[in-house]
Write a structure and sequence with these properties.
mainly alpha; 149 residues
């Protein structure tokens, strides 16, 4: 995992023949390392960090809308150069994470719970007693007496 981060940090300093080598392999190393240590560290991680991990999909979705908006706002303010880049990264993080947490809590989680309930209701397998009741023959009332007139 550390090797992946180190490779990504040093990447701008050296030319590479392919984007896969430059970004794909280090990212794969980071993900593999994180998954490998999850079982050992999962119980000791703070709740806010676990919730941030749960909100990662919401972050993935919402940041694609937020970052262009923030970039547009920065350029309209004529805020450019290295300080602007640093400020935009910090601002993007400061806005993206809270937005992602709100979307995760109030949109993603309720929708996931709704779909879990629906899936559980559709996949209920009838019990043996229920099947026996359905398959049992109708009780016979015997011959019906005919009334004489």
């Amino acid at each position: 995992m550390c090797g992946g981060f180190l490779t990504l940090m040093l990447m701008p300093l050296s030319p590479v023949p392919s984007e896969f080598l430059a970004w794909g392999l280090p990212a794969a190393a980071i993900v593999t390392g994180a998954v490998a240590i999850e079982g050992q560290l999962g119980a000791r991680l703070p709740k806010w960090l676990l919730e941030a991990g749960d909100a990662s999909y919401a972050l993935y979705i919402t940041h694609t809308f937020l970052l262009p908006y923030l970039g547009n706002r920065m350029s309209k303010l004529h805020f450019t150069g290295t300080p602007a880049l640093a400020a935009s990264i910090i601002l993007s993080l400061a806005i993206s994470f809270p937005v992602a947490l709100v979307v995760h809590r109030y949109v993603e989680k309720p929708l996931m719970n709704l779909f879990k309930k629906r899936r559980a209701e559709k996949s209920k397998v009838p019990t043996r007693k229920f099947r026996e009741e359905i398959e049992a023959p109708e009780p016979s009332l015997g011959p019906v007496p005919v009334a004489e007139v």
